Amino acid sequence: MASQTPDGTPSPAPGRNPYEMRFDLLHLAKDILETNAHMAREDKAKDRSSFYTTEQVIATAKELNSFVSNR
């Protein structure tokens, strides 16, 4: 049975702190944008300048965090 916080929501994985989870979200966001850029480069019909910015990585990480944090 998964552990829960006092308000009944599932607690993070044992041994994981919020900083580690945030780090993982940033890496996941970067990986998503990197994959999208790679796919765009392979599509000959699209513009070849498909790089991602730090702001895009942070925005994507915020979207993922919002989804994960949604109760």
What's the layout of helices and strands?
Elements (H helix, E strand, L loop, with lengths): L17 H25 L11 H16 L2
Helix pairs in contact: 1-2
Q: What does this entry look like structurally?
A:
The chain has one domain. The chain is 58% helix and 0% strand. The chain contains two helices and no strands. It is elongated and about 40 Å long. The two termini are 19 Å apart.
Strand content: under 5%
Strand tally is: 0
| Unreliable stretches | none
| DSSP helical segment count | 2
Class derived from helix and strand content: mainly alpha
Radius of gyration: 16 Å
Overall shape: elongated
Helix percent reads 55-70%
Largest sheet: none
Mean pLDDT: 75
Distance between the termini: 19 Å
Count of spatially separate domains? 1
Output the helix-strand order.
HH
